[in-house]
């Protein structure tokens, strides 16, 4: 007998999805473990390429080269997820991802015995791009299956659990990469990812058959047109994409961290690591204390307020940088002993706030997408969602890099944070259906 009583209010993350669906539990655990390996490889590839080339530009090209294939993969992968058995799509893309990581092991072993002057860097770009493409398809498909494994009331809790996994991946993966590269070298570091990926593969293989419900469309232009037509009729989902693009375009200060560690806060690479970890810690803590999300119904309002809070924290970080470059915190230098403890603490708190508020927004945006969209359309929409989440930060890096160079180091976060607050207020006002969105009656 199902009780009509509302679920008890919680402070900490709700683990009900793990108990309600063993298939979801295996998928979540597998993706969390394999995600640590994925973050490990991202950092290790950058370190390997820098060791071979001593070029920051060469390291930056890893993401730049993979951007267009990632966008294509998000769109195409979403169509595959809406046309075929999603379990099969996950298995095929997982095998390709595993093989590309194994290829990095071989490449690293070959380069270990060669003179860096004779190194071939382009194979690393090839394998990392293949890995990015397959991971994008996997990510879009894996998220699209969640509503098939859980009842609607648990989808928001599942999204919060996703934040726990992401926070762990972003903190453990990079740290583990640094330790392993220093201790055992690149080949074994990449091999660790190969082993960790096995957990994700087991979580996928154990899934039931997941053929899309309703009418399906073969991948191609007709499928794209159908997805575009649906988005035109789905103002709430469309707005959830738009507000995220606003936040990521004007609120991504990560590309500024090296300069901040050198001239504003001091501390050099150690400061960069602390600031990066602070944002990830905020994501983790927001998910850990996500118990109340199950009682929120006005998702549009919650998303808007969370993103405005995100903008406020970004602007606060900009103020800290402004204080640093004007000498408010005293003289600083590139070694960690020359960092300003006050400025570093304030900046870390601000960035933890950005991670926490962004995670709250992500929980509600993801839940809205999964519960308001029909099953036959979820793959394509998750593909677009993946492109937005992956492409938005790259726009943000471009905005921050250009404006910091043209105006000042503090300008991108301070002006960007204020712009986010203002733009979200305008968007909430012009889209009343988004403000009125009710989780009990989800409408796209």
From TrEMBL:
It is a multi-pass membrane protein. SUPFAM superfamilies: MFS general substrate transporter. One of its GO terms (cellular component) is plasma membrane. It is found in: Cell inner membrane. CDD domains: MFS_MefA_like. Pfam families: MFS_3. The keyword Cell membrane applies. InterPro entries: MFS_dom, MFS_trans_sf, TM_effector. This is MFS transporter.
């Amino acid at each position: 007998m199902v009780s009509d009583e509302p679920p008890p209010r919680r402070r900490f993350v709700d683990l009900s999805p793990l108990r309600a669906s063993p298939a979801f539990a295996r998928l979540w655990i597998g993706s969390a473990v394999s995600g640590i390996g994925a973050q490990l490889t991202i950092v290790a590839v950058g370190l390997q390429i820098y060791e071979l080339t001593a070029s920051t530009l060469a390291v930056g090209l890893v993401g730049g080269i993979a951007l267009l294939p990632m966008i294509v993969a998000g769109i195409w992968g979403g169509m595959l997820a809406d046309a075929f058995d999603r379990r099969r799509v996950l298995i095929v893309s997982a095998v390709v991802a595993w093989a590309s990581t194994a290829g990095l092991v071989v490449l690293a072993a070959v380069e270990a015995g060669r003179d860096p002057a004779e190194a071939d860097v382009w194979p690393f770009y090839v394998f990392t791009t293949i890995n990015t493409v397959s991971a994008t398809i996997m990510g879009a498909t894996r998220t699209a299956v969640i509503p098939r494994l859980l009842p609607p009331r648990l989808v928001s809790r599942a999204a919060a659990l996703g934040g726990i996994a992401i926070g762990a991946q972003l903190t453990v993966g990079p740290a583990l990469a640094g330790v392993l590269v220093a201790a055992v070298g690149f080949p074994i570091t990449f091999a660790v990812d190969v082993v960790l990926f096995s957990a994700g593969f087991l979580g996928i293989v154990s899934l039931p058959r997941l053929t899309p419900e309703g009418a399906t469309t073969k991948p191609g232009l007709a499928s794209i047109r159908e997805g575009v037509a649906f988005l035109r009729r789905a103002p709430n989902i469309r707005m959830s994409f738009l507000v995220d693009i606003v936040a990521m375009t004007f609120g991504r200060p990560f590309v500024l961290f090296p300069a901040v560690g050198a001239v504003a806060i001091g501390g050099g690479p150690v400061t960069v690591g602390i600031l990066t970890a602070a944002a990830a810690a905020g994501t983790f803590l927001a998910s850990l204390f996500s118990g109340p999300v199950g009682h929120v119904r006005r998702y549009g309002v919650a998303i808007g307020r969370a993103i405005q809070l995100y903008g406020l924290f970004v602007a606060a970080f900009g103020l800290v940088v402004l204080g640093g470059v004007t000498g408010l915190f005293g003289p600083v230098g590139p070694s960690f002993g020359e960092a300003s403890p006050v400025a570093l603490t304030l900046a870390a708190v601000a960035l933890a706030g950005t991670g926490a508020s962004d995670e709250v927004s992500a929980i509600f945006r993801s839940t809205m997408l999964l519960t308001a969209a029909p099953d036959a359309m979820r793959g394509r929409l998750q593909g677009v969602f993946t492109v937005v989440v992956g492409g938005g930060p790259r726009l943000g890096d471009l905005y921050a890099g250009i404006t910091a160079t043209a105006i000042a180091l503090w300008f991108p976060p301070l002006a960007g944070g204020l712009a986010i607050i203002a733009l979200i207020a305008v968007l909430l006002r012009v889209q009343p259906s988004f403000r009125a969105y009710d989780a009990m009656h989800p409408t796209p």
